[in-house]
Design goal:
The chain is of the alpha/beta class and 444 residues long. The chain folds into two domains: 234 residues, Rossmann fold (3-Layer(aba) Sandwich), CATH 3.40.50; 190 residues, Glycogen Phosphorylase B (Rossmann fold, 3-Layer(aba) Sandwich). 42% of the residues lie in helices and 14% in strands. It has 17 helices and 15 strands. The strands form three sheets. The chain has a seven-stranded parallel beta sheet, with helices on both faces. β13, α11 and β14 form a beta-alpha-beta unit. α3 crosses α4.
């Protein structure tokens, strides 16, 4: 089949983008042809001729940023009519763009990557809904997270906007299948909307070599400012508040060995006005940890490359290869890619029992880890963490055991079984009649 992926950005290190790449890889292995329509490409994911750029689909497009500010961040009563008109105009424009893309690439089924689940881009979600309404195209919605999981982030003072959000996210239609990444979302979709969904966990390729020291990454720690005898603990996530990075900083403070250093790999690009990042910088300063906590966002990205001045850029795999252990003290996650990455890398990981997912969908499988509750580092937890950090034999036993468990539950083989169930020719294959094409053009 020709499968068309619609996504706001791809090639980045956020969970949606990373997981989409894995789906694409497995779908291609299964014999499908994959086309991508995205508002932002960090790099090529499929053949360049099968990648289409849609500037309005970007989360950083003027349209999207204006909609988010006027709907949620800085709403003004006098702007409501203009906002509604703009949403209608922009979503129509996006729908036409999607329709032309479907026709030109003979798309059989759309894969909507979180675009029909989280209202991070209102007009994109509306545009996809209009396409589904006006054609008989089939859609698989890969739902990573929903608006009700983000507190009041997507609550507007305007009833019209709240009604729009509730009527668009998630996308509900007989032509739509939903794939969710955790048990909690599966239950909520059933209880709130009467929707059946398939649970598809996030996965890693356990058959591919990963996180190994080689000639390229051997000097990585030195390049980011650590000494040869330092003990590196990595926080391999973006810098956003829900990641609980302050708990990792507290851990470093409470481990009195000054050779134990924390390396924070991620970018603060998604941190609104860099508020959380600034808080972390101040916290590090207040605790006197400037020589024990390192930000390496300029040297560690999703893949190896060279910077504009010729310096080595390292991958996440390189980061894990150099880590003695990892911290993952998130307060909330839709799933938790960083945990499975650490398991694949055979790296011990210390985790907060983040709600509502970790124990239900991951921890209960039997992984050996130091798990804390409510981001409280007890003396017992500190003791267990230190034992793992300093005991090579114990660390090897734990990581080998976790690797085999990860392979059993979160591998590409598991994903292929799930995708086979989702993308079935006789239930997905579609044809858009010529008369309906004219109808869509007229209505949009």
């Amino acid at each position: 089949m020709n499968i068309g992926v619609i996504i706001g950005r791809i090639g980045d290190v956020d969970g949606v983008a990373l997981e989409t790449e894995k789906w694409i890889e497995v779908l291609k292995k299964m014999g499908h042809k994959v086309f991508i329509l995205s508002g932002q490409y960090t790099r090529n994911i499929v053949e360049p001729e099968n990648e289409t750029f849609g500037q309005m689909l970007s989360f950083f497009s003027p349209e999207c940023e204006w909609e988010q500010k006027r709907a949620f961040f800085f709403p003004r009563l006098e702007d409501l009519d203009e906002l509604l008109e703009q949403l209608e105009y922009a979503s129509n424009k996006i729908a036409v763009h999607i329709f032309k893309w479907i026709i030109s690439n003979r798309i059989d089924v759309i894969l909507s990557e979180n675009a029909s689940a989280l209202p991070a881009h209102l007009s994109m979600g509306m545009g996809i809904k209009k396409i589904v309404k006006n054609t008989n195209i089939k859609v698989v919605c890969h739902d990573h997270d929903f608006f009700w999981e983000r507190g009041d982030r997507y609550e507007s003072p305007f009833k019209e906007i709240n009604d729009l959000v509730h009527g668009t996210f998630p996308l509900i239609s007989p032509n739509v299948k939903h794939a969710v990444i955790n048990t909690y979302s599966k239950n909520i979709l059933k209880e709130k909307f009467g929707l059946e969904s398939l649970l598809v966990p996030n996965v890693m390729d356990f058959n591919k070599r990963y996180a190994e020291i080689d000639g390229y990454n051997r000097c990585m720690l030195d390049d980011i400012g650590l000494k040869k005898d330092d003990i590196p603990i990595f926080q391999a996530t973006r810098i956003v508040r829900r990641k609980g990075i302050e708990t990792a900083i507290e851990l470093i403070e409470r481990i009195k060995d000054k050779k134990v250093k924390l390396v924070i790999t991620g970018s603060y690009a998604d941190d609104e006005r860099f508020g959380y990042y600034k808080e972390l910088v101040q916290l590090i300063k207040d605790k006197g940890l400037n020589d024990r906590v390192f930000f390496s966002r300029n040297r560690i990205l999703s893949k190896r490359e060279k910077s504009s001045i010729g310096k080595k850029i390292y991958s996440l795999s390189d980061a894990y290869a150099s880590a003695r252990a990892c911290t993952y003290f998130s307060r909330y996650e839709g799933f938790g890619n960083a945990f499975i990455e650490a398991v694949l890398a055979k790296c011990p990981v210390f985790v907060n029992n983040y709600k509502p997912v970790f124990w239900t969908d991951i921890g209960s499988k039997g992984f050996k880890t130091v798990m804390i509750e409510d981001n409280i580092l007890t003396d017992e937890a500190i003791s267990e963490i230190c034992e793992i950090i300093y005991n090579d034999k114990l660390r090897k036993e734990i990581t080998e055991y976790n690797f085999e468990l990860g392979k059993k539950y979160f591998s590409f083989e598991v994903l292929e079984e799930k995708l086979t169930e989702l993308f079935v020719d006789e239930t997905i294959k579609i044809v858009i009649p010529k008369m309906q094409r004219h109808k869509v053009d007229e209505e949009l």
